[in-house]
Every structure is written in structure tokens, then in C-alpha cells.
Amino acid sequence: MGSGIAHVCAASGFKVKLYDLSAERIEAGIATISGNMARQVSSGKLKDEDRQDALKRINPAHKMEDLADADLVIEAATEDETIKRKIFAQLCPVLNPEALVASNTSSISITRLAAQTDRPERFIGIHFMNPVPVMKLVELVRGIATEDTTFETARDFVERLDKTITVAEDFPAFIVNRILLPMINEAIYTLYEGVGTVEAIDTAMKLGANHPMGPLQLADFIGLDTCLSIMQVLYEGLADSKYRPCPLLVKYVEAGWLGRKAGRGFYDYRGEHPVPTR
């Protein structure tokens, strides 16, 4: 999601530095942004001169030290608390003391992440929805130590991106995923228990509940590893059996069938058209 966040920031006039684990991944991220902006131009949503200006505002950051002059850094790593903590441990020492740090986590405690940094009062959750250039919502999540000025600055920043803000309290999975992921997990249980096939479940929810995408197709789009991580956060954080991840979800992740990004999940994407795997 980092490239999507960089996309909307640059399109809104912000100077952006994009950091990743390797130069190749940074280049791939910028190429993705360029391609997505080109599609926006083709559809009339963006002027070509605005696309060119936005791309000029995006520069690669090849090392953490390149972020030293940033006013705001948004972490958008995989939904793994250990990885995020390591990033903040490396990041914070190189930043300006007044810089704000945000996490795009979709479920992990902002208070707990903030406590691992040298600036919990200047730490906040800014949770974008995927795909970022398309989805209008952003969840703002305050940690227990987040100062009012940090929240106000984050709110002003998100408003400049022309996004709609919803404020969530710092509880597991916040608002969207607290509701969405248990629904997806229940759809997986429905498949696991043989109530319906992949195709039947997705068709039922698209036509019966007017969802634009079936829950199993959506799970593949999100990434089954991400779905499992969020369900584990809910299950461990709330200690309620209704959040227990479905064993079939666990099995798919163990198999490396992580959804669209891996070529297989509840659908097989390796052919010309996706085909249900069950």
C-alpha cells in the first residue's frame, strides 16, 4: 500500500520520499504509481500535466537517513508487529525531533507501537483503505499518548488528500476491519463446513447482499496472510472465541496460497480467468 499512499500524497501536492528494502522495490513502486496515474489520465480523472508534476514530486529514499528532513513518515509495512517495531527502531533516531510518525496498520495497537518509539506523543494511526487512490476513507487512530496537535496535523493532512476521515478508538482492528474481517472469516468457515462452494458463497453475497465483491474474492485481494494476521490480533486482543481464525484460512496461509499476489488463494489466478480452488 505504500505506493498507493505515495501516489495520493504526490497528487495532492506533497513532496514524497519512497523507502523500501531495495532499490528494485522502490523502482517497482514508482512504476506502479506511474501506471496508475496514466490510467487516471486515460479515464479523465487526472490531467497529464498534473500526472507529470506529481511524479516529479516523488523521489527514492535509498537509506533511512534520506528521511531525516521529513515532516511526516508513514510506515506501511506488512501487518507484522515485530517488523514494524524494527522499522521504528531504525527510523526514529534519524528523524527530526519534531517529525510526526504514523502507522498504516489495519489492526495493531497504536498505543503499543508508539511506546516503542522516542515520540509516542507525535505518533498516530493513519489507516488508508486499499486501493488507496480509489478508496475515499481513512481511519485516524489516536494512541493513549497522542497529543492534540498531532491529531490535528494528521487530520489536516488527510483532508488535503481529499479523503473522508473516520476517527476510531485504539481497539483491535479499529472500525472497518473489526466489522469486515469477521465477516470474511465467517465466509471461510461457511466454505470449511461445506455449506457452500467458493463460487456459491461469493455469488450469494454479491447478489443477495449487494456486495460489489464476494468475501472470498475480497480476501484474496487483501491477502490471506493479512486476513489471518488481523483475525489473530482480534482473537488475542479481545479473547473472544467468535474471532478464532478459521482453520482453513490458516491452512491456505501455511501452503503459501495468499491470494492474488501469490497466484493462488480461494481462486487460482494462474490462467486466463480466475478459477475457484474449492
List keywords for this structure.
9 strands; alpha/beta; N-(1-d-carboxylethyl)-l-norvaline Dehydrogenase, domain 2; five-stranded mixed sheet; 46% helix; 11 helices; two-stranded parallel ribbon
Task: Chart the SSEs and their pairings.
Blueprint: H1 2-11, E1 16-19, H2 23-42, H3 48-56, E2 58-61, E3 72-75, H4 81-91, E4 100-103, H5 110-114, E5 123-128, E6 137-142, H6 148-160, E7 164-168, H7 176-192, H8 198-208, H9 215-222, H10 224-238, H11 247-255, E8 267-268, E9 275-276
Parallel strand pairs: 1-2, 3-4, 4-5, 6-7
Antiparallel strand pairs: 5-6, 8-9
Helix pairs in contact: 1-2, 7-9, 7-10, 10-11
Descriptive notes:
There is one protein chain. With 278 residues, the chain is an alpha/beta fold. It has three domains: 1-61; 63-170, Rossmann fold (3-Layer(aba) Sandwich); 175-276, N-(1-d-carboxylethyl)-l-norvaline Dehydrogenase, domain 2 (Orthogonal Bundle), CATH 1.10.1040.50. 46% of the residues lie in helices and 13% in strands. It has eleven helices and nine strands. The chain has a five-stranded mixed beta sheet, sandwiched between helices. Strands 1-2 form a two-stranded parallel ribbon. Helix 1 crosses helix 2, helix 7 (176-192) packs across helix 9 (215-222) and helix 7 crosses helix 10 (224-238). The protein is globular and about 55 Å long. The model has no long low-confidence stretch (mean pLDDT 97). Residues 1-170 form the 3-hydroxyacyl-CoA dehydrogenase NAD binding domain. It is an enzyme of class 1 (oxidoreductase). Belongs to the 3-hydroxyacyl-CoA dehydrogenase family.
